[in-house]
């Protein structure tokens, strides 16, 4: 039939459309027979064996393959790209029968052969684990170590991962890399809610199933009346001969689909007064106290985070959120006076909001919204940590939140809006849905549709997406935003383990990383307030430098009480901000490099970066290791230098295909630029 990207061999065998001699679409319909006793596995389902090829046709860069049986017409779309080795796949099922039917699962795509039988010890899977404060932690394991082994023609074991809920990346990123026989195959599931992937055996080898939610793992089912259709989430696959190569191909594809924002084209430096400073208790006095130092450091936006609303103390604010009107107690002269002051310093102003929830004690909004405006299961509103979840399919919800954004922009003066989401709604909602999972899927799409409306209405506003850090760091979300929070990690010595990996998951021009040079090790939100004397005695040069280096690979989010720093250390912040700005153009076309592999919590060293136009840009961290570190680059280097800090005691020299870095302290970081020969 057709060869896509030279490695995905679509073929016709008699009346069937196959890959490696097996089906690539798997669908289960309620009440229909599944031919094998495969337990929870997602192959050889009720419809796969009976689908017959109807047509295939190329339209531009899209190959459309149409199959059908007595119930369904199944169309799979394969999209290729001239500048990337990625294939994007999506499947649509249409009920062509005379009666309603219920889909219990529908794959986006099944890659029928990732390795053969007897090869599970030499085939490896990279999984990208996630957690609050511990995002993007890749781990490599053989399929054998993960429990896959040959016993019979088709065993019961499967290696599977499912996200269930509205935090799409709370446990694992919806991506992975299969490594076998010198080839690396990377996959990405583009879902901002529930998703599922599976590796197991069938026939002569091991397959990879990719899709969104389904009934067993996600509480999803979909009723299709005659003529109705359902289209799956998209998935993307790339193949290359190296780890960096396949990540590079996926990076190029992500640039094609990533959200764009005119206000964000220059990748401005953001200062946010939340981290290690105001936390949940901003106020007019704080903004006037902190903003001048942020401007002097070179920040271009200043964001007032959670707490600008409501009159209760910051420690009690979350159960009351939902009205989103300025606090007279915290901003007695009005929020506009504070944002005007920010503008007077040459910065643009920003505000935080958590639009998808209201607090369970927010009486005004509980009285305003009807029951149809909330996620509900078994007739009850879903409540997590004092929050109810709003349903953006409801016009009343969209109308109120649209007016809220208008008020924040036009009355309060916000030119940057941070949209946060601090709880997971779980499996979904029964409201106007065939299943909990379908309700969640529809609500998730409605929210992003509303986001697109706000971005079109306010093109001058930069919208950030955040979910307790990076717990919604998927590429369905990132098609609609130009910038995403990657973590809420509060310890600058732990952040390198995230920052060193993050551009394997998110484009460097989208990945926001905190830099808080005056951060303390005191309990976050614990009421500790540093003084000038404390900062002079406790904030070392190495702490300031590492905080700056942490943010160089992604988007810089400055924070903490910069005004307390002695001049020589504040100069390091200014220098770091200025240097970050020199990286912005290269970052927008760069590909990632991981010369020491991925970082893991507890490692004594880390190095990562990006390459563009014959240069490598590398962040290097010593995290308690030896003073000498050798970094292989795989290519000869003509010149290398430490570019931040300029007066660094760290020394670097080029060796054959590598760099030798000499540290002077056990906890230390620097940034390098190397020119390839």
Task: Describe the protein in words.
With 677 residues, the protein is of the alpha+beta class. Helix content is 19%, strand content 34%. The protein is built from 11 helices and 41 strands. Strands 5, 6, 7, 8, 11, 12, 14, 15, 19 and 20 form a 10-stranded antiparallel beta sheet that branches. An 8-stranded parallel barrel has the order 21-22-23-29-30-31-32-33, surrounded by 4 helices. The longest helix has 22 residues.
How are the SSEs ordered, and which strands pair?
Blueprint: E1 2-4, E2 8-13, E3 16-19, E4 27-29, E5 52-59, E6 62-68, E7 72-81, E8 84-95, E9 101-106, E10 109-116, E11 123-129, E12 137-142, E13 158-163, E14 172-180, E15 183-189, E16 195-202, E17 205-212, E18 222-224, E19 229-231, E20 235-240, H1 243-257, E21 270-272, H2 274-278, H3 284-297, E22 301-304, H4 335-344, E23 348-353, E24 357-359, H5 363-368, E25 376-377, E26 380-381, E27 383-384, E28 387-389, H6 395-411, E29 416-419, H7 436-457, E30 462-465, E31 483-485, H8 496-499, E32 511-515, H9 532-538, H10 541-550, E33 555-558, H11 567-587, E34 591-593, E35 605-612, E36 615-623, E37 628-632, E38 637-644, E39 651-655, E40 658-662, E41 667-676
Parallel strand pairs: 21-22, 21-33, 22-23, 23-29, 29-30, 30-31, 31-32, 32-33
Antiparallel strand pairs: 1-2, 2-3, 4-9, 5-6, 6-7, 7-8, 8-19, 8-20, 9-18, 10-17, 11-12, 11-14, 13-16, 14-15, 15-20, 16-17, 24-28, 25-26, 27-28, 34-35, 35-36, 36-41, 37-40, 38-41, 39-40
